[in-house]
Amino acid sequence: MEAEEYALMARVEDTHWWYQGMARLTHALLHRFSQQPSRLLDAGCGTGGALANVLAEHPRRFGCDRSALALHACRARGLERIQQASLSELPHPDAVFDLVTCFDVLYERGVPDDLAALRELSRVLRPGGILLLRVPAHDWLRGNHDRTTHTARRYAVADLRRLFAAADLEMLHLTHANAGLFPFLAAKRWLEHLNPLAPAASDLTWEAGPLAALLRWLLTVEARVAAGPGLPFGLSLVAVGQKGSPA
């Protein structure tokens, strides 16, 4: 991810309507699948927004990220139990976490082997532990934002089912997210493809102004559906997996 993107994340992560909407979805899924306070790892914690906000109710929470810039932002928030590490080589022993979260990291070029990384996330989970994963959907939706975030891959439902099975994770729930924004972003990507020489730009620069409250409400409504029956389409995929018990 570009250094400018980390700086932008640190600036808007607590207040941007998109992050707040995703936090509501995370809360709804954790309420359904992992209600008890637990030992938690946010793998690829970025600038610490999730650890400081939606995951803050977990008293024993840890984070890691490969970016020193991201960890500097985490420390500025007062987060202490964080380490510099990649998803491919976590600095933790086997089976120590009840819950592992990984939000919009697995798809990056900094994760050259997504299956190996997912197996590493599974390794640090205790038997019966829960993994909550969010990734971007639909490879055809690549655009300028993907250039700033160093996107290596976007995912289909079948991709995640295959990866979870190979990593010894039972798929408990799989849903799309960001359905209401889907047609607008698809149109934006189409326009970007008409001008391939346009400079890379982050979607986070669009703060929506007076529309922010409406978009926040829309994502809040979607969160209830996504955490329940699920959404059949959207810009993101969110999966909940459980590590199997030892034989």
How would you spell out the order of helices and strands? HHEHEHEEHEHHEHHE
Question: In which range does the helix fraction lie?
Answer: 25-40%
CATH class division: Alpha Beta
End-to-end separation in angstroms reads 40 Å
Rg estimate, integer Å: 17 Å
User: Spans with pLDDT under 50 lasting ≥5 residues?
Assistant: none
Mass-distribution shape: globular
Q: In the CATH hierarchy, what is the architecture at level 2?
A: 3-Layer(aba) Sandwich
Percent strand equals: 15-25%
Q: How many separate structural domains? A: 1
CATH homologous superfamily caption: Vaccinia Virus protein VP39
Q: What name is given to the CATH topology?
A: Rossmann fold
**Biggest beta sheet summary:** 7 strands, mixed
Derived structural class = alpha/beta
Number of helices: 9
Structural write-up:
- This protein is of the alpha/beta class and 247 residues long.
- It has one domain: 3-Layer(aba) Sandwich (Rossmann fold).
- 38% of the residues lie in helices and 20% in strands.
- It has nine helices and seven strands.
- A seven-stranded mixed beta sheet has the order 3-2-1-4-5-7-6, with helices on both faces.
- Strand 2, helix 4 and strand 3 form a beta-alpha-beta unit.
- Helix 2 runs parallel beside helix 9.
- It is globular.
- 44% of the residues are buried.
- The mean pLDDT is 89.
